[in-house]
Specification:
Elements lengths: L7 H10 L1 H11 L4 H18 L7 H5 L6 H5 L7 H4 L10 E2 L2 E2 L7 H5 L12 H8 L3 H13 L4 E2 L4 E2 L1
Antiparallel strand pairs: 1-2, 3-4
Helix pairs in contact: 1-2, 3-9, 8-9
């Protein structure tokens, strides 16, 4: 069984180092067959998910901008703070304690769907994948696995595949 990367500091460091590479790969993906890419992404996601439990990480809860309604946010943020946090880059959810969601079964739909790797049309969501690559071991490992599966090599001089 393949070992997947889960060290958040390492992943963030690699994300910085591979920023140009990931953008180049994003461009390459847009030229690929969407259904083929979805099959690979879904399979890789299942493999990664079987080894890395997102509830052991909680990094998304600390680093994502919430996309939720006022009603949904009121379950997780003090009422007086909702307006100022609706468009914040990231917030600390009041149900996030010691890297664990204390209300996991009632979390907002946005939290349930994250990191969106089980959805179709991955190639139309590569911008968010690149953003989430630095904070989510699932996204990091799937994106890197996809590069490998497609035999894609970064060529910085031409900024596309070899």
């Amino acid at each position: 069984m393949k070992k997947f990367e889960s060290d958040l500091k390492y992943i963030e460091q690699i994300a910085k180092e591979k920023q140009d590479e990931n953008i180049s790969f994003q461009t390459h993906l847009k030229e690929q067959d969407s259904k083929k890419i979805d099959k690979i992404v879904h399979r890789l996601y299942k493999e990664v998910e079987s080894q890395i439990d997102c509830r052991d990480c909680g990094n998304c809860c600390q680093n994502l901008r919430p996309i939720a309604s006022h009603k949904e946010l009121s379950q997780f943020v003090a009422e007086e703070n909702i307006e100022s946090l609706m468009y914040a880059e990231s917030i600390q959810c009041m149900h996030h304690k010691d890297k664990v969601c204390t209300d996991y079964l009632n979390r907002p739909e946005e939290c349930r769907l994250f990191p969106y790797l089980g959805e179709d049309d991955f190639i139309t969501k590569t911008y968010s994948a690149i953003q989430n690559y630095r904070i989510c071991p699932h996204v990091y490992n799937v994106y890197e696995g996809l590069k490998t599966e497609l035999n894609w090599q970064y060529n910085p001089t031409s900024n596309n595949k070899k």
